[in-house]
Amino acid sequence: MVDLNTVSPKDPAKRYYLALGLEGSANKLGVGIIKHPFLPETGAAAKDNSHDCHVEILANIRDTYVTPPGEGFLPRDTARHHRNWCVRLIKRALLEAGVRDACAELDVICFTRGPGMGAPLHSVALVARTCSLMWQVPLVGVNHCVGHIEMGREITKAKNPVVLYVSGGNTQVIAYSDHRYRIFGETLDVAVGNCLDRFARTLKIPNAPSPGYNIEQLASQCKNKETLVELPYTVKGMDLSMSGILAYIDSLAKDLFRGNKANKVLFDKKTGNTKVTVEDLCYSLQENLFAMLVEITERAMAHVNADQVLIVGGVGSNARLQEMMALMCHDRARGRVHATDERFCIDNGVMIAQAGLLQYRMGNYVKDLSETVVTQKFRTDEVYVSWRN
Amino acid sequence: MTTKTARPAALDHTLTLNVPFETPRQALIASQVLQPDPILKPQDFAVSYAAQGPCLEARFCGRDARVLRVGVSSVIDSLKTIIESLDELDQTGPSSTEASM
Amino acid sequence: MDRPYAVYESPDIPSKKFTVVPGNPRYETTDGVTTRPSDHVLNAGQIDRDKPSEPKREADGSEQFTKLSQLRMNLTGLQDDINEFLTEQMDVAKAKKAKLDSLEQDARIEEEINGLLDGKDDD
């Protein structure tokens, strides 16, 4: 039994909670403001309703740090972006949400404590601390991944799905059990979004707006879908590895650009004609990586006897990944796949507000600012999920 | 800050920064916001903050100019962000003098 | 409101004071010269669209900047002074050391500074 009303709304007469969420763990800076109505049925008598809070999104603003095509983002430049934009974005979000007196109206300020890049995380945490002190509003430090999961559950109303978390920095298969989001399988080296982004860099195409987006666009133009370029398939038990695949396809792309006719995968042995296009490479890479993701997700479903999958994270907005996952789910006892669109898939402040507000409503918030130190490594299963049965 | 290896009198490059705010409350907020973050290399660098009236004093000690260059600039970056937050988002206004939390 | 200042002391330099020079444009901007984007992206053709926000003006209709905005601008100039001075001091220290060490050090120091700026952990 979970009582989501452990803490009363700031103004009991208003009968709702208002939360500000700040996200800055990677190259996206997000500010969100959400409202949870005070539902008496989520009181002591209720069961687990944490996936159905009747959230209302009052503001969801995002600004992405963009680098020139072919360049990765350095933590120090990303931190500078967040530092220089954070206050302006908060001002805009408060205005959009109609919050005139943050001090009187906000119940809680939620910020990403990790995992992610240290310097950008720190820039945003500083602003969160300052706002908390000057408005006298409590703080909650949120695990970025738990933010994705809770936002996905709330939007799709999936009660207890197996979660596939795929982004530029993370690749994890997660299932809930006994107050923890437990990691069933994960990447042993690079994240799937990072793998796609790094290949995009090799192709000199931009990484905006989300990891792998431009690869997806090229892949959809592939005219040769029957003949896949063979790539290593590296599932290891519940885990997977992608660095070898990336190195191999990078070398193929470089040979293709260089016109290295000695490469028989790319060029016809006799005529020397090109057999493979950039679009074919993108398509094959996606098919290969996504098949691996579907395989480990299916195995996790079998383990926990689940029939639902929730895909979260920036790569989760990829239509082909959603399609492949849906096929698998359908084959398995008419299961369902849930995904959100890019407003929630891509890093945002609203998801931090959602997970943080759930935690706040359970009475679990920062008592001393020493608890707000950010951490680059913060595993999903470190968080005690008090708001679920 | 605890130091793992005892290297007495090594941190002999110092910089003291004095930042006058409008009110004691603002100086106190700034010191409370800066305080929690650990120093990356305590054996090479140390920093302490003190709010005295409306002034914040930050005192940095480093092994050499190099660690000071990085540490001081990063704290000033943080200070500029805190000041911008107070400037743009504080509804209490400078007339308020009560200390917070 | 007074202006911010800083004092540097080291075995080589007994005391060096950094103060705001009123009227000097260096202390009347939020966009410092030593806090621009990294050379890494600038050399790749980056246009800086992430400059710090403009200073805020008083609500009373006077063209005055708020006290806090003035402080932020003063600190920006002071930060540039301190950064430039400490970089010089690093070069002095480096020149001294160069006689003993190989020039390999330079690259290592540069890399270490960048590492620290990026918030790299020791591990």
Automatic annotation (TrEMBL), chain A:
Gene3D superfamilies: 3.30.420.40. Pfam families: TsaD. Its cofactor is a divalent metal cation. It catalyses: L-threonylcarbamoyladenylate + adenosine(37) in tRNA = N(6)-L-threonylcarbamoyladenosine(37) in tRNA + AMP + H(+). SUPFAM superfamilies: Actin-like ATPase domain. CDD domains: ASKHA_NBD_OSGEP_like_euk (cd24132). A divalent metal cation binds at residues 144, 148, 165, 347. InterPro entries: ATPase_NBD, Gcp-like_dom, KAE1/TsaD, Kae1_archaea_euk, Peptidase_M22_CS. One of its GO terms (biological process) is tRNA threonylcarbamoyladenosine modification. Binds 1 divalent metal cation per subunit. PROSITE patterns: GLYCOPROTEASE (PS01016). Keywords: Acyltransferase, Cytoplasm, Metal-binding, Nucleus, Transferase, tRNA processing. Its EC number is 2.3.1.234. Substrate binds at residues 165-169, 197, 212, 216, 318. GO terms for cellular component: chromatin; cytoplasm; EKC/KEOPS complex; nucleus. It is found in: Cytoplasm; Nucleus. GO terms for molecular function: chromatin DNA binding; metal ion binding; nucleotidase activity; tRNA N(6)-L-threonylcarbamoyladenine synthase activity. Residues 57-353 form the Gcp-like domain. NCBIfam families: gcp_kae1. Belongs to the KAE1 / TsaD family. PANTHER family: TRNA N6-ADENOSINE THREONYLCARBAMOYLTRANSFERASE. This is N(6)-L-threonylcarbamoyladenine synthase.
Automatic annotation (TrEMBL), chain B:
The gene is KNAG0C06620. Pfam families: Pcc1 (PF09341). One of its GO terms (molecular function) is chromatin DNA binding. InterPro entries: CTAG/Pcc1. GO terms for biological process: cellular response to pheromone; positive regulation of transcription by RNA polymerase II; telomere maintenance via recombination; tRNA threonylcarbamoyladenosine metabolic process. It comes from the Eukaryota. GO terms for cellular component: chromatin; EKC/KEOPS complex. Belongs to the CTAG/PCC1 family. Signal peptide: none annotated. It comes from Huiozyma naganishii (strain ATCC MYA-139 / BCRC 22969 / CBS 8797 / KCTC 17520 / NBRC 10181 / NCYC 3082 / Yp74L-3). This is Transcription factor Pcc1.
TrEMBL record, chain C:
Residues 19-65 are annotated as: Disordered. GO terms for biological process: cell wall mannoprotein biosynthetic process; positive regulation of transcription by RNA polymerase II; telomere maintenance via recombination; tRNA processing. The gene is KNAG0C02290. Its main location: nucleus. Keywords: Activator, Chromosome, Coiled coil, Nucleus, Telomere, Transcription, Transcription regulation, tRNA processing. Belongs to the GON7 family. It is found in: Chromosome, Telomere; Nucleus. GO terms for cellular component: chromatin; chromosome, telomeric region; EKC/KEOPS complex; nucleus. The lineage of its organism: Eukaryota, Fungi, Dikarya, Ascomycota, Saccharomycotina. Residues 68-113 form a coiled coil. The keyword Transcription regulation applies. Residues 47-60 have a biased composition (Basic and acidic residues). It holds the Pfam family Gon7. GO terms for molecular function: chromatin DNA binding. This is EKC/KEOPS complex subunit GON7. Component of the EKC/KEOPS complex that is required for the formation of a threonylcarbamoyl group on adenosine at position 37 (t(6)A37) in tRNAs that read codons beginning with adenine. The complex is probably involved in the transfer of the threonylcarbamoyl moiety of threonylcarbamoyl-AMP (TC-AMP) to the N6 group of A37. GON7 likely plays a supporting role to the catalytic subunit KAE1 in the complex. The EKC/KEOPS complex also promotes both telomere uncapping and telomere elongation. The complex is required for efficient recruitment of transcriptional coactivators. The keyword Protein biosynthesis does not apply. Component of the EKC/KEOPS complex composed of at least BUD32, CGI121, GON7, KAE1 and PCC1; the whole complex dimerizes.
